[in-house]
Records
---
Amino acid sequence: MWARLRLDIQWFHLIRGIFDFLPFGTRSKTQKKLEDYWSLQQDDVLACLSLRSGFDLYLQALELPAGSEVLFSSITISDMPRIAEAHGLVPIPVDLSGCNFQLDLASLENAITAKSKVLVVAYLFGARPDLSQIIKLARERDLLIVEDCAQAWHTPDWRGNADVDATFFSFGNIKTATALGGSLCRIGHQEILDQMRELQEKQPVQVTWNRPVKLIKYAMLKILSTRVVYYFFCQLCRFRGRDLDVVLRGFTKGFSESDLLFRLRKRPSCVMMRMMYRGLKTYDTQRIEQRIQNAHQIIEHLELQKVEYEPSENSHSYWLFPYFCSAPDQLVLHLRQHGFDTTQRGRMEVLSPPDERPNLICPQATELLNQTVLLPCYPEMSDSAINQMCDLIIQFNPQQSFIHDSTGDTSKSKNALCKQ
Ligand SMILES: Cc1ncc(COP(=O)(O)O)c(C=O)c1O
C-alpha cells in the first residue's frame, strides 16, 4: 500500500538529531547562525517554534486596532483565523478559484473595506500562482501582504515573493524538509522584526526533554509509511474498525487545540533549530525535482493539460497533487482498495464569513475543496506506481469523474471548476 505522504526527513537527520543534545554552542548563537544563514546576512529573518507562532508574533508587533479585518485565502487551517480572533481582529474569507487555488481577484475586491489591514495568501499544496494582480490591488488599498508558505517550501534559497511584507515557512511534522517543527519568517519591515524579536525574547524556551521520544516516534512513522508495513497497518485499522484518517491525524498532530496561544508562545529550542539548519544546508533538491516530475506524469497520463493543468504556466512543487473529481469519497475508496492511500482535505477548512457579512461565503473554494482528492506523488513513488494509480483513476466510473466523460474524451470535460 502506498501511503498518502512520506515524512520528508532522511534517516541521517533523525539519527543526528540525538546528538543535537550535546552542548555545542548556546541557543541564541544557534538561532543567529540559522537566521544569518537563511537570510544571507540580510537580517530579515526570525526563527520561530511554528508558523503559527511567527504569525502570532507578527500580529502582536503590528498592534492593529481591535476590529480590524484580516483577509485570508478562504482555505486554510482553522488555527490561522483563530489566532487573528485572539488578537481582537476579524478574519474575513476571500474566495479562491482554479486548480491552483489562487485568490479570486473579484472576491478580494469585494471583501476589502476601510477596516481591512492585512491579507494572508496561502499557497496550497505547493502551488505558487502569480500574485502580481493581487499585490497591485492590495497596495492600492493599503493592505499588508503576508504569504503563508507552509505547503510551498521547495528549495532552501527561495524566500518568498520579494514584494510582500512577510513570508512564513513551516518545517512542521508533515511538511517538506521537516525538522519535526519550526518555522522561518522573513519580515520586510525592520521595526516590525525588531518588535517580534523583543516579544519572542520574553517567551519561555520550548521544552526539549521529550525530543528523543519525538525522534523515535517519527522514526517509527517513517518505517510505518513503507509499503509493506503500511499495508498491515491499514489492515489493522480496518480490523479494529478505526478510521484511518483519524488515526493518522492523531499521530502527526502538532499542538493541541486548547490554550492555543499559550502553546504557540514559546521560543524554539536549540535542538530544533540545529535540525532546521542542517535540513536547509543539506536538503537534496532532487527530491523536489522528482516530485514535480511525478506530478507531470500524472497530468500527462490523465490528460489533464487539456482541461485544467498547464504545468509550464505556473510554479508548483506538488507537496500533494490535488485531483478534482465529482465523487471523491468513492475514488478514495477505490484507490485504497487497490493499494493507494489517498485522502481529501487533511486539516484544511473553508473559513466562514462573519455573521454581519454573509455575502462573503466562498462557494468556489467550498466546491474545490469538497471535490479534491489529494494524490501522493512523493519522490519514492516509482513510474509504474504513478501509472498504475492513474489507470485506476481512469477505470473509476468515468461518468462520475470530471476528467473523463463516458466516451473517455477529455476535451468534453465537465470540469468547470478549473476554468479560469
Ligand atoms: C496552510 C497552512 N498554514 C499554516 C500552517 C501552520 O504551520 P505550523 O504547524 O508550522 O504552525 C499549516 C500547517 O499545516 C498550513 O497547512
Note: The chain has two domains: 20-201, 286-412.
---
Amino acid sequence: MNTVHTTAPTPALDIQRLRITLPGTARPVLDGIDLHVDAGETVALVGESGSGKTLTSRSALKLLPPGADVQGAVLVGGQNVLTMNPDQLRALRTGQVAMIFQDPRAALNPLRRIGDFLTESVTLTRVMPTTRADATARAVELLQAVGLDSSALRKYPSQVSGGMLQRVMIAAALMGDPALLLADEPTTALDVTTQAEVIALLAELRERFGTGLLFVTHDLDLAAAISDRVYVMYAGRIAESGPAEALFAHPRHPYTAALLASTPRLEAPVGRLAAIDGQPPDLRQELHGCPFAARCPLATEICDRQAPEPVRAPDLPDHQAACHHTDRLEGSPVDV
Ligand SMILES: Nc1ncnc2c1ncn2[C@@H]1O[C@H](COP(=O)(O)OP(=O)(O)O)[C@@H](O)[C@H]1O
Ligand code: SF4
Ligand SMILES: [Mg+2]
C-alpha cells in the first residue's frame, strides 16, 4: 500500500514571536508578533499610525532600525532572515522578497531612465547573473503585465504620472520573481481612481504569478476589499487576526470594533463617525496589561494587570483576538 505524506506548503512569510526593542524606550516596539502569509495569499496588516506596521513588514527584509534588539524568527520560504549573512540578504532582497513603497517618486532616481531602473536590479545584484537582453525582455513583459508598453523604458520618472510610476514600481518588484511582495501603503499618494486601478492590478498579479502579498494599510475598507486574511495591530502587538469577512462582520476585539465604528461610511448616520478617544501608549511608557485598556469601554481590573493572550473564536479557530472579554463582543460589529 502506498502511503501518501501530506505536508503543509511552506508559507511565503512566517513571523514567529517577533520582539524588537529600540534604544531609549521603556517597552518593545514590536512585542510577540505572530503573522504568516501563505503562497498566493493576500494578507492585510492594519492599524493606526505608529502601531508598528512598517517595522513588521520591513522585518521580512531585515531592514531594521540601528541598535534594535531583535528576538524571535522571521522565516521567508522557511529560512530565517534574521540569521542570514550579507550575501544571503542581498539574494533575498533582489529575489525572493520585493517591496513597493508609498511614494514611488521618492524611491526612484530622477536622472535614470525607467528601463535602466527596471533592469539594473537583476543584472547588477542578482546572485544568478542575467544578461541585459534577458532583463530587458523581462522588463517589457512585466510592463505589459502592469498595463504599460515598452515606450516607458525610455522615459524618465518626471515624464510619467504618479499612477504610472507606481505601476513601474510593481513591475520592478516582480523582476526578481518574488515569492513575497510587501506593499506598504502603496496607494496613499494616489488619487482614488488610480488607487482602485493599482489595487485591481495587485490582485490580478497575485493570481497570475502566485505571489504572497502583505498589504500594509490604515484604510479598513481597502483591507476588506483586497485581503483574504487580516491582522489588526495595536501598540506593537496583534490585537486581532482572522479571515477578512469574519473579522469585519464580527470583530472580536474592542479595538477593531472601535476602528470599524470610526471609519467614515457613506451610509452611516452622522454622529457615528467619532474617532476613538485617547491616544495609543507612548514607547516611553511601560505596559503591564492590555495596551488598549486606557481607551477600552470594556476594560475591567484584569485588563490593567495582565496582558491578554490570543483567544480563538469557538466556531472559527483561525479568528483570534487578544482580549480578556472577547465574548462580550459576539455578534456586535460596532456596539462598544
Ligand atoms: N528608526 C526608528 N527609530 C526609532 N523609532 C522608530 C524607528 N522606526 C519606527 N520607530 C517607532 O516605532 C513605532 C512603530 O513605527 P512604524 O512601524 O513606522 O508604525 P506604522 O507603520 O504602523 O505607522 C513608532 O512609535 C515609531 O516612532
Ligand atoms: S483585554 Fe480588556 S482592555 Fe484589552 S481590549 Fe479586551 S476588554 Fe479591552
Ligand atoms: Mg508605516
Note: The pocket of magnesium ion (ligand 3) is lined by residues 53-54, 184 (CB under 6 Å).
